[in-house]
């Protein structure tokens, strides 16, 4: 049976050549739209971009760590990151994007873009949220901040479970009762959460490069 053709693209063949990480991200996004589920976004061998209008988090902690995984060729890969953790957070107008380059059959680059929390009255909600960040630009406001604590004593939510060996417990860290980040643009290697509820979820694929910022 021949592949179905729409708009000049052979979609069956397209589905076969898309990297599993992008397909997994799409599947997780659909699942999260149905309720609050345990979530983990990690794009193997690729960083991804996230932007939000506003993130308000409780029990903010931040410390240095190493994100460890596999690159696109299956080799071990490690990236230094600043981990931001929150016991709970609300996120308004979230956008997440990842670009898969150099696809065969003349497809070139394909971008996956996910948006949620576009209604200010129905933001994205997360618990035990950890962001492995390579770069962050934002306007930040902290309440009851404590700078220069040891990473091993940051308090709740604490060091991300399962990553303790990648963290120097005596390394520099900071914490705050509340953190409010506005106009956020970040490049990350991983995002994990105990629960992640996405209202007004929209997931789209675009030919070419189409990122959140």
Layout of strands and helices, then pairs:
Blueprint: E1 5-6, E2 9-10, H1 11-17, H2 20-32, E3 37-42, E4 48-70, E5 76-92, E6 94-103, E7 108-116, E8 124-150, E9 172-197, E10 202-207
Antiparallel strand pairs: 1-2, 3-9, 4-5, 4-6, 4-9, 5-8, 6-7, 7-10, 8-9
Protein architecture, described:
The chain has 213 residues and is mainly beta. The chain has one domain. It is built from two helices and ten strands; from the N terminus they run E-E-H-H-E-E-E-E-E-E-E-E. Strands 3, 4, 5, 6, 7, 8, 9 and 10 form an eight-stranded antiparallel beta sheet that branches. Strand 6 and strand 7 form a beta hairpin. The longest helix has 13 residues. The protein is globular, with a radius of gyration of 18 Å.
Briefly summarize what is shown.
The chain has 213 residues and is mainly beta.
> How far apart, in Å, are the first and last alpha carbons?
40 Å
SS-derived structural category: mainly beta
Rg calc:
18 Å
Query: Taking all residues together, what is the mean pLDDT?
Result: 82
Shape descriptor reads globular
DSSP strand count: 10
Main beta sheet: 8 strands, antiparallel
**Strand and helix order:** EEHHEEEEEEEE
Question: What portion of the residues fall into strands of 2 or more residues?
Answer: over 45%
Portion of residues within helices = under 10%
- Number of helical regions: 2
Uncertain spans:
1-37
Number of domains: 1
């Amino acid at each position: 049976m021949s592949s179905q053709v729409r708009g000049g693209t052979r979609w069956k063949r397209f589905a076969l050549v898309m990297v599993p990480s992008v397909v997994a991200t799409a599947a997780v996004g659909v699942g999260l739209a149905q309720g609050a589920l345990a979530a983990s976004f990690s794009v193997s061998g690729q960083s991804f971009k996230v932007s939000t209008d506003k993130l308000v988090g409780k029990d903010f902690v931040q410390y240095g760590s190493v994100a460890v995984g596999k690159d696109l060729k299956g080799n071990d890969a490690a990236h230094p990151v600043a981990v931001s953790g929150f016991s709970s957070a609300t996120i308004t107008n979230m956008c997440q994007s990842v670009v898969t380059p150099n696809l065969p059959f003349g497809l070139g680059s394909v971008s996956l873009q996910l948006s949620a929390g576009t209604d200010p009255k129905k933001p994205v909600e997360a618990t035990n949220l950890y962001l492995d960040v390579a770069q962050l630009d934002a306007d930040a406001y902290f309440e009851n901040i404590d700078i220069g604590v040891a990473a091993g004593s940051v308090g709740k939510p604490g060091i991300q479970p399962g990553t303790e060996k990648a963290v120097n417990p005596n390394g520099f860290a900071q914490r705050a009762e509340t953190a409010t980040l506005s106009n956020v643009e970040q490049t990350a290697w991983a995002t994990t959460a105990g629960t992640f509820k996405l209202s007004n979820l929209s997931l789209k694929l675009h030919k070419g490069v189409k990122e959140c910022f």
